[in-house]
Description:
alpha+beta, four-stranded antiparallel sheet
Amino acid sequence: MKAVFIVYNQALSERVTELLDKTNARGFTQWQDVKGRGTHTGEPHMGTHTWPAMNTAVLCMTDHATAQKLIQGVKQINAKASMQGIRAFLWDAEEGV
């Protein structure tokens, strides 16, 4: 089982929802109004007057094949909207109840 953690500018919410639907990634949790700052070139997303943008985060538990599709989909979204900010991280996850 894999855990895919996706963090993205709220402006990309529709695209990420479409990606989750397209890949049939059904088991996920979503957090809205997430604050943060990218490690390389992105501007902070802090929900303040100076940095008004906010992020959303999704943690999806899925099989290896679907996880790879999600990672590829995030790469495609980022290629078209790199200034908005989207990142995905992949972890191994043990099954739980």
